[in-house]
Write a structure and sequence with these properties.
Length: 360
């Protein structure tokens, strides 16, 4: 087949193959240029060929089945993985981790966008090449949010200047929303939201500002958030949410898709809990001194020693037993009971009624 169909009751073959999960539309176009796609026995020569179905279409001699329902997965990519099917250098890829993270018989899934080797966090995966392409386009304007741990001197005013975009080495980066989360000395966490997703955009912009990036984590892509998903695990987005998102994306309002109430609650918990843990790990150890430690109610130091220069109230010096005091003012010798005072007849005096004189 050498020319596109004039009847537009259908879709272009590149779009249908991408929709079926064969590859992205751009990759399908390369397959067609290489003569790998056929309809029956006839080689397809143009990606603009219009079809109503994929019946009779084959790729590399293998028949293409009808497109499955669109599926979307949220994957927590660990650092140290390549976002590709294979790496010439032999480094591990995301598909190594996805073997145990995805359900069985899920079929081929493709990453939406990429995360660098040392970048971690949210990575979306889909079996729909058309959805993948739509979400990756800068013109779609889907926001991507990252958290970066950096070292160096920076102010909030400098970060706010990025809202107008910046040009670095001849490359123009569009609107960037950057905010200081917290700072400890010259170390700080910065939240960065971009909409273009150019190659290594966040790292390059922060390094341009003189910052050293030690950790980069993507927490959000469009309306989908990482939440508290464990590292190396994946979860599937509900089919109803996928369809709702697709319609919003087609209508140009995908960024306004809202999460359900339970998802919003989980997001709030996830945004706060990890940061408290990180703050506890980043806080310097307090010195072991009475000044830094809280005081105890009994007057002792937290390490169990008595305060220097002061005796605890209500206690006798060490090495002596408490001395009992009798009502008549005599003290008992240590370790012995005090002798009773004799009466006039030489016998022991009997105690009298309380508050009165003893009986004779």
């Amino acid at each position: 087949m050498t020319s596109p169909e004039k009847d537009r009751q259908g879709d272009r073959i590149a779009k249908l193959l991408a929709r079926a999960g064969i590859a992205s539309r751009r990759e399908v176009e390369r397959m067609i240029a290489d003569g790998r796609v056929k309809i029956g026995e006839e080689v397809v020569t143009t990606p603009n060929t219009v079809l109503t179905s994929l019946k009779g279409v084959s790729v590399d001699g293998k028949p293409v089945k009808a497109a499955d329902a669109t599926r979307l997965f949220v994957f927590h990519k660990p650092s140290g993985l390549i976002t590709a099917e294979r790496d010439p250098a032999g480094r591990p890829t995301i598909y190594t981790a996805l073997r145990n993270a995805l359900p069985e018989n899920v079929g081929r899934v493709m990453p939406i966008g990429r995360l660098d080797f040392n970048t971690e966090g949210l990575l979306l995966l889909t079996n729909d090449g058309e959805l993948k392409r739509a979400m990756e386009l800068p013109s779609t304007g889907l926001p991507r949010t990252y958290r970066a741990r950096t070292f160096g001197d920076i102010s909030q005013a400098q970060l706010e200047e990025l809202i107008e975009g910046v040009e670095i080495d001849g490359i123009r980066y569009g609107k960037i929303d950057a905010n200081m989360e917290r700072r400890t000395g010259r170390n700080q966490w910065i939240e960065v939201t971009i909409t273009e997703g150019k190659n290594r955009e966040v790292r390059r912009v922060l390094e341009y500002l003189g910052l050293e990036v030690s950790r980069l984590l993507r927490t959000r892509y469009g309306p989908f958030e990482l939440l508290d998903l464990p590292r190396g695990q994946a979860v599937e987005v509900r089919q109803a949410d996928v369809e709702r998102f697709r319609k919003a994306l087609t209508g140009g309002t995908a960024q306004s898709v809202e999460l359900s109430a339970p998802q919003q609650a989980r997001a709030r918990i996830a945004r706060s809990a990890p940061r408290r843990d990180e703050a506890a790990r980043a806080a310097p150890a307090r010195p072991n001194s009475a000044k830094a430690a809280p005081a105890r109610a009994d007057g002792r130091k937290p390490d169990g020693r008595k305060p220097e220069g002061r005796k605890p109230e209500g206690r006798k010096p060490e090495g002596r037993k408490p001395e009992g005091r009798k009502p008549d003012g005599l003290r008992a010798a240590p370790g012995k009971s005090a002798p009773r005072k004799s009466g006039p007849n030489g016998g022991a005096r009997k105690p009298g009624p309380r508050g009165g004189a003893p009986k004779r």
